[in-house]
Design goal:
Length: 304
């Protein structure tokens, strides 16, 4: 009988999966009379000042930016900008969206918007921002080669890693036991959506996931519902539906997969069932959402 050789793990990372979009990344040089009207969008924005001076109004609060100063604008914040000096100004703007509960929780822990050039966050992000700036100004509107796309991805994720690391240091927040449990529940729910991706039955997952989560955390299903609702303000089942919706929207935005395929990946037996559910969530069909997203992306690419 052959004896199997033994193997010892020296180290192992958990599986990593994140839905991420980088949109409207641009550098712009403008004269002193240039303005951008009040607006808001569904993305995070890093607004970095390269030269001159400008004023940005965010949710009614005015911020004066000089060279090296940085603004971190979160989704839904209304903002507008005007020049503040006689010589015009140059800025670099990065828009991104992330669907990952743990990551977004870290992004939203610190509520500050303005970070001066000598702050730890502005200085900590400067290297990654310089790399992205160089890539943006090198190519302008030219299509990126596969090699350059990978360089953009690498710089973008380096930027996000530095951003969440710096924000976590700035936000001296200690989570309560209840918050910790609620975040663990959220992570389990997101894992259940990954399970649906692999096994393709959303109904089976809905029947078993609360019991599985309760067992893994050694608490009762009723405690799962109560704790999650107290921390997140919504029921775990609704959070699951929202997570499925976000994944459906990501696939419709970021891939060319046909809707039948997306429906199958999300565990729906038929396209019609998926389309009915998606319309109940959003008020429009998956096809209409994809067309609208493509038009919006084209507009935002020219944005602020």
């Amino acid at each position: 009988m052959t004896k199997l050789s033994e193997a010892v793990y020296l180290g192992r990372l958990p599986d990593v999966r994140m839905s991420f979009q980088l949109l409207g990344l641009h550098a712009r040089q403008v004269d002193s009379s240039w303005t951008y009207p009040s607006h808001e969008h569904s993305m995070y924005e890093i607004h970095w000042m390269l030269d001159g001076q400008m004023n940005m109004v965010v949710n009614g609060q005015s911020y004066s930016q000089s060279i090296g100063d940085l603004l971190f604008i979160r989704p839904g914040m209304t903002h507008s900008c005007t020049g503040a000096g006689p010589q015009g100004f140059t800025y670099f703007s990065v828009h991104f969206s992330v669907h990952d509960t743990s990551f977004c929780r870290e992004l939203n822990r610190c509520k500050d918007i303005y970070y001066p050039a000598d702050s730890s966050l502005a200085s900590g992000l400067s290297s990654s921002l310089c790399t992205l700036y160089d890539l943006a100004t090198e190519h302008l509107s030219m299509p990126l080669s596969s090699s350059k796309q990978m360089k953009v991805h690498a710089a973008a994720f380096e930027l996000l890693g530095s951003l969440v690391g710096q924000l976590s240091q700035n936000a001296s927040v200690t989570l309560s036991r209840k918050e910790t449990i609620a975040h663990q529940i959220a992570e389990h729910i997101e894992d259940s959506v990954r399970y649906i991706h692999l096994h393709g039955d959303v109904r089976e997952s809905e029947r078993t996931w609360i019991q599985d989560i309760a067992k893994s955390l050694n608490i009762s299903p009723s405690q799962i519902n109560r704790i999650f609702r107290e921390v997140y303000g919504t029921a775990p089942r609704k959070f699951l539906s929202e997570t499925l919706l976000n994944e459906a929207q990501r696939l419709l935005k970021q891939t060319d997969l046909n809707i039948d395929h997306i429906a199958m990946m999300l565990g729906y037996k038929t396209n019609a069932h998926f389309s009915r559910q998606f319309k109940r969530w959003t008020g429009i069909t998956p096809s209409e959402f994809r067309i609208h997203s493509q038009r919006t992306a084209a507009t935002e690419h020219l944005g602020d």
